[in-house]
Design goal:
The chain is α/β, with parallel strands linked by helices. It folds into 2 domains: 2-177 and 351-363, Glycogen Phosphorylase B (Rossmann fold, 3-Layer(aba) Sandwich), CATH 3.40.50; 180-348, Rossmann fold (3-Layer(aba) Sandwich). Helices cover 40% and strands 17% of the residues. The chain contains 15 helices and 13 strands. The protein has helices spanning 14-26, 46-50, 65-90, 102-105, 124-128, 133-145, 155-165, 180-183, 190-197, 218-228, 245-254, 270-274, 291-299, 327-337, 352-363, and strands at 2-6, 31-36, 55-58, 94-98, 115-119, 148-152, 171-173, 204-209, 234-239, 261-265, 279-282, 303-306, 319-322. A 7-stranded parallel β-sheet has the order 3-2-1-4-5-6-7, with helices on both faces. It has a 6-stranded parallel β-sheet with strand order 10-9-8-11-12-13, sandwiched between helices. Helix 10 (218-228) packs across helix 14 (327-337). It is globular. The two termini are 13 Å apart.
């Protein structure tokens, strides 16, 4: 079986991590190709993928000032052209798209026997309404030509997507899985990591893992951190990168927090940094089935989360959900639960291999 996994980039993020995990699992028995639009440079997954037999293909071989200008002017037509050439030459049995790429997929001319799948990695309102309303048009355009099977992250999102599509189609709930072996790698020494990061060994260590975008609500997290510092000895680890990274760094510097907030950038070995956290703080405004939160719970870190987190994503009993963005309530919740670790025993049910098997069962259906 030939499988194409198509996503815009392989930067560090939940959807990207899922694509990599699924692809590695599928590549044990099938021929897999990961297709991106904007190159693999800077991807934290690149070295891991180079050790597999997975083919890596990018629409743009380089992503710089000139290709950005070209993409702005001709990107949609160019990507559609390259996509058609690739599908014609590779002749995939499975084409699995992720995130906002349906605008390109809908222009594939030769559908043939290929089965098409699409994973909506967050709230369908983000992908099919507002500024992304055209993606809904393109989804329906694809559905008019061939069968398109959808995956969503929870039952709530299944209902929302069903309302958008307004037609009978296959919408299936499959939760994201994690690489448990890498996550629980015992070779990482907590005290060495604390020393490496330059953190006060007596401090309570708060942490967050996620793409630096407005939806993750980092600014509120920094508001909370700024106030909690007045009560307890505490430091903050931020793992991830994204469009608002520089804005957050300037904000931290302006608030005089530079010595206490540690920007680590994108990291593949997230378990190393989760292992030192006393509390995982996750104040997202919008979430689906957040991989970073699942990882934190599997490691056993106590978590304080917003009520944007669906109950399906709470898998441990040391999680406190705060139903409003009131700084005092967040502080009291963090202080109350910090340090109360509880490792999940039957964690294999949340593994990326288990979830990839669920996806694969759809691939092989007649």
């Amino acid at each position: 079986m030939k499988i194409i996994q198509y996503i815009e980039t392989l930067k560090c993020g939940g959807a990207e991590k899922v694509v990599v995990g699924q692809s590695i699992f599928f590549s044990k028995t099938e021929e897999v190709l990961i297709l991106v639009n904007f190159g693999f440079e800077g991807s934290p997954f690149l070295e891991k993928l180079k050790k597999t037999n997975i083919k890596l293909v990018s629409i743009y071989s380089h992503w710089n000032f000139f290709t950005r200008v070209f993409h702005k002017l001709f990107g949609k037509k160019y990507i559609s052209y390259k996509l058609n050439r690739l599908v014609s030459s590779f002749e995939p049995d499975i084409f699995h798209a992720h995130l906002s790429v349906l605008k390109y997929v809908c222009n594939i001319k030769k559908w043939g026997p290929t089965k098409f799948f699409y994973t909506c990695h967050s709230d369908p309102n983000m992908y099919f309404s507002g500024s992304n309303a055209d993606e809904l048009f393109f989804a329906k355009k694809i559905m008019a030509k061939t069968n398109l099977t959808f995956f969503v992250l929870n039952e709530k999102y299944k209902r929302i997507l069903s309302g958008f599509l307004n037609t009978r189609c296959s919408i299936n709930v499959v939760h994201n899985g994690v690489d448990i072996g890498a996550l629980l790698d015992n070779s990482c020494n907590k005290f060495e990591t604390i020393k490496e990061l330059g953190i006060n060994k007596n401090a309570i260590i708060l942490g967050h893992v996620g793409r630096m975008v407005a939806e993750k609500n980092h600014n509120f997290l920094i508001d909370v951190f700024n106030e909690i510092r007045k009560k307890v000895n505490v430091e903050l680890i931020l793992v991830g990168d994204g469009p608002i990274n520089q804005q957050l760094k300037k904000r931290v510097n302006a608030d005089g927090l530079t010595n206490y907030v540690h920007f680590l950038g994108e990291k593949e070995n997230v378990g190393k940094y989760l292992s030192v956290m006393d509390c995982f703080v996750f104040p997202s405004i919008i979430e689906g089935y957040p991989l970073a939160l699942i990882e934190a719970q599997i490691v056993g870190i106590p978590c304080v989360v917003s009520d944007a987190i669906d109950d399906e994503a709470i898998i441990n009993n040391n999680v406190l959900k705060v139903n409003e963005y009131n700084i005092d309530k967040w502080i009291s919740s963090i202080i109350k639960i910090s340090g109360q670790r509880n490792v999940i025993q039957n964690r294999e049910q949340y593994s990326d291999e288990r979830k990839a098997k669920d996806i694969y069962s759809f691939y092989i259906r007649k």
